[in-house]
Design a protein that fits this description.
This protein is an alpha/beta fold. 28% of the residues lie in helices and 34% in strands. The chain has a single domain, classed as Roll (Nuclear Transport Factor 2, Chain: A), CATH 3.10.450. The two termini are 20 Å apart.
């Protein structure tokens, strides 16, 4: 994974071009976080562990079984195309089918390259690229931009929504 840039509310607003206006509009006395809290850091670590597991090209389909380490049993998994899955067994089956779609040539691999991460409480938002690499094939062009929203509770991903544009 690439180096990630972490955003607090202060630099998130500034980076989005609405810094002065947004900060001026905050409720009186509301403190702006200068750093991620311990909980937010732990939530980011859960999401990072998920990505590390799913994008390891040296692994076989055992990585799908390891989703239990980072995802809740009753996870809700959605995407911008309207697809939604309920429960870890459905998500595990989807990933199994996804990786096997390489056919007889082998398993497809996935690579995440997130450039920005924003965390606030249970929400971890990442922006960057997803690459689906065919067995032995070249890495595709970097034109697959994703914004992924994770809701983390008790050290597990409870909800994940993937929004993308090519």
């Amino acid at each position: 994974m690439q180096d990630q840039k972490f955003f607090t509310r202060r630099n998130f607003f500034a980076a989005s071009g609405v810094g002065a206006i947004a900060i001026a509009g905050l409720a009186q006395g509301e403190a702006l976080a200068a750093e991620l809290s311990a909980t937010e850091k732990a939530n980011v670590a859960v999401v990072d562990a998920f990505h590390k597991n799913m994008s390891d090209p040296a692994q076989n389909l055992d990585k799908v079984a390891r989703l239990k380490e980072t995802c809740a049993q009753d996870i809700i998994w959605g995407s911008a195309n309207g697809q939604k899955m309920y429960g870890l067994p459905a998500v595990m089956q989807w990933y199994t089918d996804f990786f096997k779609a390489g056919g007889t040539a082998g398993l497809r691999t996935m690579q995440y390259e997130y450039s920005e991460t924003f965390a606030k409480g249970p929400v971890v938002v990442e922006y960057g690229l997803h690459f689906v690499i065919p067995p032995g094939g070249p890495k595709p062009a970097p034109n697959n931009f994703h914004c992924v929203v994770h809701i983390v509770k008790d050290g597990k991903i409870m909800e994940r929504y993937d929004y993308f544009v090519r």
